[in-house]
Amino acid sequence: MKIVVTGGAGYIGTHTCIVLLEQGHEVVIVDNLCNSKPVAVERVRELSGKDVAFYEKDVCDGEAMREIFRKEKPDAVIHFAGLKAVGESVEQPLRYYENNLGSTLTLVRVMEEFGVKNIVFSSSATVYGDVENPPLREDAALPNHAACPYGTTKLMIEQILKDYAVAHEDFNAVLLRYFNPVGAHESGRIGEDPAGIPNNLAPYIMQTVVGKRDKLHVFGNDYPTPDGTCIRDYIHVVDLAEGHAAAVKLFEKDGCGLRIYNLGTGKGYSVMEVLKAFSEAAGQEIPYVIDGRRDGDLPESYADCSKAKEELGWVAKKSLQDMCVDSLRWQRQNPDGFGE
Ligand code: NAD
Ligand code: UDP
Asked: Whose CA is nearest to atom 12 of ligand 2?
């Protein structure tokens, strides 16, 4: 299939492009580089040995998207493009609603105009909020809004795609709810490259290992969990990428309609367990300090992944140790990420 990958220069997008190219798909990346660098696209070409079309365009720009669809005639779209920083979304809600909702509305409109009926959308475990206890199933009741505007954009986009699918019987939309992506391609050539001080646990630990940060700040050790720190379902980014390739296979059969799948491992690890795993992989102690709780954090979140296993034939294969080893290889080989 020929697949337009919006946000394909980003962390999950680059890894997914590699897997799609390995499986014989053609990939067209559309990314405005607001949170990525052109060298990431070069590395996708290098690792795959394939020519990958790249358009530095904003998905909110309808005319630019029409031009791309006219030229490329894609069969499907994977929509990664979006802003994703929780704290920033609290400070700049309009920017988040404009970019995340605007890009999706424009994209679906252009898909309709060009008769493209297949989309995979990057949703998030954040849509579950705190309504139900883990393991979280896809049929769980969802809250009206998430803990931050970023999360609420995911809830709203899910609803837009659900409503659109009701109105258009031949529309196929696969909503993938990611848990916590960690790790990097085993070559060490691509990986996560956060701008500024990392918000997420794994990048912060990785930067502490290479000396860019003094110590990890553990946000709270008084949660009702065995060691008092929060539990999350960390998933290797290459497993996540393979989940997208499995979702695309649904489009090759008859129409799949609207589907929702969790992509996680089904197993939760605490902050202290993750820190220990990184310490072992790095072969060094990683300094840390216990701080207060971070607003909006839930004690525990992990997936029930049985639906993806049954319907997509997909399971996460890589361990927490793999995530740590691969992340550190990327971080050590590229201490400044993709550079300036
Ligand atoms: P990322 O920031 O590395 O990648 C997103 C890419 O989209 C970036 O390259 C950015 O430049 C691009 N982009 C943003 N807005 C755009 C626009 N309007 N037009 C064109 N390009 C645009 O993030 P990621 O971690 O790879 O995440 C990919 C998707 O997965 C996002 O939608 C994110 O919300 C979602 N997600 C990520 C996580 C995570 O922890 N990484 C968890 C759940 C869901
Ligand atoms: N966390 C932490 N220190 C950090 C970053 C995160 O202790 O510098 C904790 C955070 O409180 C949460 C877990 O690590 O319990 C995972 O946080 P992350 O931001 O990576 O993912 P999310 O909150 O989206 O699940």
From this structure: 230
Calculated CA dihedral for residues 331, 334, 336, 340, nearest 10 degrees = -140
All residues at 6 or more sequence positions from 311 whose CB lies less than 8 Å from its CB, including other chains: 259, 261
Residue 77's Cβ-count burial label (10 Å; 0-12, 13-18, 19+) is buried
Task: Quickly list DSSP for 81-149.
Answer: -----HHHHHH-HHHHIIIIIHHHHHHHHHHHHTT--EEEEEEEGGGGTTSSPSSB-TTSPPPSS-SSH
Answer yes or no: 150 catalytic: yes
Residues forming a β-bridge with 177? 123, 262
The tens digit of pLDDT for each residue in 197-248 reads: 999 999 999 999 999 999 999 999 999 999 999 999 999 999 999 999 999 9
Residue 182 CB less than 6 A away from ligand 2: no
Tokens of 42: 């070069």
Task: Name which of 307, 316, 313 is nearest 262 in CA terms.
Answer: 307
Name the active-site residue from 55, 96, 150, 261. Answer: 150
The protein residue with its alpha carbon nearest to ligand 2, atom 23, reads 297
Q: Which ligand is nearest to the CA of 13?
A: 1
- How many other β-carbons are positioned within 10 Å of the β-carbon of residue 10? 26
Is residue 219 in contact with ligand 2, taking CB distance under 6 Å?
A: yes
The model's pTM is 0.98
68-100 pLDDT, tens per residue? 999 999 999 999 999 999 999 999 999 999 999
Ligand with the closest atom to the CA of 55: 1
The separation between CA 152 and the C-alpha centre of its own chain, rounded to angstroms, equals 16
Write out the two tokens for 169: 């019987």
